[in-house]
Amino acid sequence: MYKVDSPQAEEFIHHEEILETLEYAWSHKDNRAFIEQLIEKAALCKGLTHREAATLLECDQPDLIERIFHLAKEIKQKFYGNRIVMFAPLYLSNYCVNGCVYCPYHAKNKTIARKKLTQEEIRKEVIALQDMGHKRLALRAMEGGIDDVGMGVLFGLNTYRYDFVGLLMHAEHLEARFGVGPHTISVPRICSADDIDAGDFPNAISDDIFSKIVAVIRIAVPYTGMIISTRESQESREKVLELGISQISGGSRTSVGGYAETELPEDNSAQFDVSDTRTLDEVVNWLLESGYIPSFCTACYREGRTGDRFMSLVKSGQIANCCGPNALMTLKEYLEDYASEDTRIKGMKLIAKETDRIPNPKIREIAIRNLKDISEGKRDFRF
What does the alpha-carbon distance between residue 254 and residue 260 come to, in Å, rounded to a whole number? Predict the structure, then answer.
């Protein structure tokens, strides 16, 4: 039986409920008046149920799809503005006892190089990440006191419709049971790697379907951050950034370590092939060129603004007086310490423009003072 607040996964991500939802979506996809009602409801920024979202995903009327995309862009701008949080993964080990058919780390794979970093190697990798400009480093693990939860589904393993519904049911469960939904939702797609061929997965999704998934998730869970990794190409990432993505990786390695020393081909330990191979500075430069603010901020974690405390900031709109200035200050540090000259020039121009847009006059005044101090060598300011 489907029960949204149940502690049992098979009850809050309920197979029969998913099948009924897919049937419901299919039967309503051509009901234009109903689709328009759902779009109007989504515009209130209170979210949609999994059945409502599934119906929008099923819609195939071009003008209504365009309205969904337009609304996704508006909601993204309203809650997250043009900030894009930067990150890079650090793999500590690729030993595994499981047999997942989509991952080259599966126990039966005898061709991949197995590695586990020592404490000294981890230290070197962290230093290498910092030297690139990735100062946003954290190792994170609702029960037991953890109040910040990220979730996602690897699209391409099952039908995307089924996994899409299950993902949103999981988000609804967190809201019902713990009073706060997921902090982030990731949207990876199946990728080739070592003995894994993405062509062997018949449920792999097209770029158009991928964009539609991102847009509908954005309007269904408007407050939640969305993540896309270097699995995706520059072209793919560019398209979905405006539709809802708020965090991207840059200069990433999907091998065990890989930042301190370049891995030789015969020592390949990567979990998947990277499609966007640009350096961090090239990604930052591209974001600046596109009008985004690359952010290296960790202030919310360090100040304890997680879980419901973070969500209250987003829902009230006060995030603009917090995350906006923090993004500019962390970007300023990156420009001073790591950026190429071209990136630095573009970044300084953007900071000058965006500083004037900080809504709160007092916050703006402090941010301007902090930015000046950063130019003089001081570091680690945050709201």
Answer: 13
Global confidence as pTM: 0.90
Please report the DSSP string for 2-65 in residue order: --TT-SSHHHHS-HHHHHHHHHHHHHHTT-HHHHHHHHHHHTTTS---HHHHHHHHH---HHHH
Convert the pLDDT of each residue in 128-138 to its tens digit: 999 999 876 65
What is the rounded distance in angstroms from the CA atom of residue 3 to the CA atom of residue 5? 6
Residues 6+ apart with CB under 8 A from 33: none
Strand partners, 228: 248
Distance CA 352, CA 332 (A): 11
Amino acid at 349: K
Token output for 155: 């699209």
The model's pLDDT over 220-275, given as tens digits with 9 standing for 90+, comes to: 999 999 999 888 888 999 999 999 999 999 998 889 998 998 888 878 888 888 88
Nearest CA to 222 among 241, 238, 244, 237?
A: 244
